[in-house]
Amino acid sequence: MADIKSWCGETVTKVKTHSLIYLEADAAALASTGVASVAAVVPGHYAAPGRIADILRRLGKPAVADYVQTKLPQGAKSRSGDLGEILATSYVSEFTGYSVAVFKLRWSDHREMAMRGDDILGIRLDPKVAVKFLKGEVKSRAALGKKTVDEARTALASSNGRPTPHALAFVADRLFETGEMALAEVIDQFQLKVRIEINQLSHLMFMFTGNNPSALLTANLNAYNGKIPQFAVVLRVSTHQAFIKQVFDKVIADGKQP
User: Any idea of the CA torsion for 108, 110, 114, 116, to the nearest 10 degrees?
Assistant: First the structure.
């Protein structure tokens, strides 16, 4: 996890029955721990720990650094989008009680191409309804406006608000391949046999941005008339573009350390 709580302040506001969560990076904490904490989790999103350990054992640390660097995006837009997903995944683990069972970026076709499907699929075993799903949409912008918020709402509304069949199949396939059979079978059940009910769903709209779009998200939540619980999260780093560069630069620099 990126230890977001250690470098961000948190404010939670209720909007009707939904939640608006505003996280703002503290400049001093960002410099002292934030960049390092985020950089530490980035490699694991692109390569499984076992894969890294195997390359380290056979070929040494320089080969690990080269391998990880071939997986990292080079373009500013790709890095922004990827880091948004990485931060959203950490947010889910740190704050929500859901787990993101599969790190999608490990299976990216190309390091400069965004992956299809839901950005986040969180899962939580629940004694009342067996399993709950968190469908998440992630946006990363230096300055985030209404058009981007509307795009996120449209994505969450797809498939009648449920996780897309593609996303469910992708996660179940990856879990099956990595030997996590029990969880893969749970997802198969809800993809292929049983319809996911509304009381098993929550939505996450996660915005990694340099500005504060809280007013836009408040308006969006007020306009939402569905029955699925909504969580709108702003993670604001005022130095958005510089922060992204610092994180990826540190990942590369750390890999080159003897």
Answer: -50
pTM over 0.85: yes
CA dist 60 and 64 (Å) reads 7
Q: Annotate 229-255 with b (16+ C-beta within 10 A) or e (fewer).
A: bbbbbbbbbeebeebbebbbebbeeeb
* Residue-wise burial string across 119-154, b where 16 or more C-beta atoms lie within 10 A, e elsewhere: bbbbbbeeeeeeebbbbbbbbbbbebeeebbeebbe
- C-beta atoms surrounding 187 within 10 Å: 24
Encode pLDDT of 193-222 as tens digits.
999 999 999 999 999 999 999 999 999 999
214 CB-side CA count, 13 A: 15
Polymer length in residues for the chain: 258
Q: Smallest Cα–Cα separation from 252: which of 80, 39, 103, 87?
A: 39
Q: How is residue 2 annotated by DSSP?
A: -
The DSSP letter of residue 8 is E
Q: How far apart (Å, rounded) are the C-alpha atoms in residues 187 and 173?
A: 10
